[in-house]
User: Fold this.
Amino acid sequence: MNILFRYGEFHNLTFAFPTQKYQYLYPEYFSAENVYGFSSRKQQKINIMCHHMRFSLSEVEKVMPSDTFYFTILRNPVSLMESSFAYNRKATHSLQSAESIEDFLNNTTTFYNIKDDDSAYAKNLMTFDLGFNHNGPTSLKHFKLLYHGVDTMFDLVLIAEYFDESLVLLKDALCWTFDDVLSFPLNIRSNASRHVLSVKTQERIKIWNQLDWQLYVYFNNSFWNHVERFGRERMKNEVEELRKRRAQLSERCLDDQVEPDQLKDKSMVPYQPYSITILGYNLKPGLDKHDQLLCHRLVIPEIPYNDLLWDKQIGKDNVTT
Assistant:
């Protein structure tokens, strides 16, 4: 999201902001009516739509141009569920009573309620976000319907575990430059906020999130087929170049990565979920005007960056909650 925010800001592009500013009435399906300023009678030129949503292609097509490039990113369901449990357990009905992720998996019939509006945080979250039934059947036929549906809707599916390779493919598909896709890791949890999973627990997560797991396996294979077409040697060289530029930029911009109470600029404190510590960055002192702007935009958390872009595009007086 930081990459898309920066590209849009630096190229003076127009974003599709949610009427509620941060999300499109999630976990409801996306609706064109959720876009600030949308009117079915007057087509507004939108360049980038990147806020969190439950995807609905027909509704997105009402807002975005016909030549829109659609892409998404998938994450290993094992690490995704560990992360979701840490971030969302206190606010999610199906998770809040479980003492641990192992406790939840051992007692899903007790904890999990299919009727809860927020149940996707506890099962097949990616399937849900992509617009499908996260409690759907787990048969080969339905697996095929799922990943062929995603394949049809999206021009490119990235893989979080191969983020640099994904950025290279995205750069190539959009005819962007290395500078356009440079980024630093954001929303990083402190080590104390992480939970190491046993092999047994990891396997149980795969079974519990079987729709997500089949989706991930299919698109992981598809991803590497894409890399083959791109060229393995070419990919290796471009990933090395991307990492070299990131290291140079890190040396230029970053003083240190710290916990929230150690951030010198308190406006740069990332959102802190209950009982989880999210790290932030201090920038090097004495940056020139150009570097100050670039470095600031690379590390600014999602919410304050969203506010900054909202104010530039829509204005401070037009605020919704």
